[in-house]
């Protein structure tokens, strides 16, 4: 394990230290299974994380835990379902920056607010890439911008729907460089990558590990990463900060929420089990292989992250007067 990931792992273990010993699960009102709602399609990396958490949670609390995929509308369908569910501990929500933080800051008429959910456990975070199909013929961020200005045509990029992290990043990217960008919504990243290779998209902002095989095959060129430091798995790829665009540095997180009003004893029991699962060797290996970084912690850690989002993403949204009314 690299020194960088070792430092991240140490911080994760310290954040989750108060949850090191999993509590016994308090009695639930229902004898039925616990369901984790995943706002992404089956078969993708987020689905894999959800199923890994479900397995670990089931093992720790001794109850059947299922995964139900509800993709679409950048997580709004899934979030609406969870917000309307009973707060009895039988429904959990695998969510993140886009489906919860960004949606509630960018949209006025949602059937839920950030307060419709209780934070349960922070799990991990990650960064995006700025990538292009090799066939586009550009090999650096500067060349991409020069290409866009020379052709006068907008750069099309894939998103997981209006208000998703990638959608918002494309809007910020467009305003920063003064080039026109056109978002194209997909239910999952693999579908967008098919179109990237097929010439229907010029740019992708997916996570680096989503592009591993394409980068190895030479069909996709990763121009930059959006983190504040280089990723040890991609040592030759510069960060946007290194290239002089530090205001384009962003990361995204993934966590577990529940319908508001979840009993405190259930919340703490779930947090303990989830933190223990995230810090397990199998899950840490999945994170490493997926280009994500452990950040496990309980409700307080997740609540602090939500506040950070309001301060950072919220400032970007207000500064750029970004609203989504679709």
Automatic annotation (TrEMBL):
Look up the signal peptide feature and give its range. 1-29
Which species does this protein come from?
Falsigemmobacter intermedius
Q: What InterPro entries does UniProt report for this protein, alphabetically?
A: BUG, Bug_dom1
Could you tell me which Pfam families the record lists for this protein?
Answer: TctC
What name has this protein been given in UniProt?
A: Tripartite tricarboxylate transporter substrate binding protein
This protein's UniProt keywords: Signal
Lineage: superkingdom: Bacteria
Family as reported in the entry's similarity comment: Belongs to the UPF0065 (bug) family.
